[in-house]
Amino acid sequence: MISPYSVLSLLFPVVFIGAMTWLIVWSTRRRRARLRQRAAQVASVGWYPVPPNPWLAQIAANLFREGEPGETYAGVYQGRGLCVLDYTYVTSNGKSQQTHTVNLVALTLPVALPPLTVRHESGLRMFRGRDLELENQQFNDQFRVECFDDRYASAVMHPRMMECVLFNPGLEWQVAGSAFVSWSANGFAVPDVLARLDAMTRLIDLIPPFVLRDYGQPTFS
């Protein structure tokens, strides 16, 4: 006679495998549906698929770590060229690995400017290298400015610019040559990107003309 425990021990692997198979199928279908919905939203705003931009992928690698570029779209927003990139990288603690997905959004600038990065302040200032201290203490408490040229950074981060950054507290960004780049976690969603593009445009418009003139270099298509 077969004991109930023997039956359970035989059924458990079958049930477990069946549950895992269902979960994989469900996750795959959900992801495909999400991508189809995103593709429709992308088409509705006039963006189009392009090969991954190596330059933008390198910015992602510098911000996070080496990884793989994913779906990439290009288009125009309020007269400025844009590029949207999904990017995936892996971290490991020696025992297990975790896959992370982020997205980057880039808008073109009229000139190429020196690098400047604005990140959320983590509180670990002593471990994060240079951080420009500005006159707005609320800004200093929430954000850090990384730049090799304090004079240039101070010119960009004038009071109105800091106020605009504080008004959009979720946005981290970087001036990278002839592009203004922001990033966030997970794959991109069109409504989120549109909101970020609006905030990015306001920030770009606040870059003083003398900064563009004195620090800018011509861009070449």
Chain-wise SSE layout:
Blueprint: H1 4-44, E1 48-49, H2 54-63, E2 67-77, E3 80-92, E4 97-120, H3 137-142, E5 143-146, H4 150-156, H5 159-167, E6 172-185, H6 190-205, H7 209-215
Antiparallel strand pairs: 1-2, 2-3, 3-4, 4-5, 4-6
Organism: Kribbella soli
Protein name: DUF3137 domain-containing protein
Transmembrane segments: 6-26
- What number is the mean pLDDT? 86
Give the number of helices.
Answer: 7
Note poorly predicted spans: none
Distance between the termini: 80 Å
Which features would summarize this protein structure in a list?
221 residues; alpha+beta; six-stranded antiparallel beta sheet; 43% helix; globular
Describe the structure.
- The protein starts with a helix and ends in a 6-residue tail after the last helix.
- Helix content is 43%, strand content 31%.
- It contains 7 helices and 6 strands, in the order H-E-H-E-E-E-H-E-H-H-E-H-H.
- The protein has helices spanning 4-44, 54-63, 137-142, 150-156, 159-167, 190-205, 209-215; strands spanning 48-49, 67-77, 80-92, 97-120, 143-146, 172-185.
- The chain has 2 domains: 1-44; 48-215, no CATH class.
- The model has no long low-confidence stretch (mean pLDDT 86).
- Strands 1, 2, 3, 4, 5 and 6 form a 6-stranded antiparallel beta sheet that branches.
- With 221 residues, the protein is α+β, with helices and mostly antiparallel strands.
- The protein is globular and about 85 Å long.
- The longest helix has 41 residues, at 4-44.
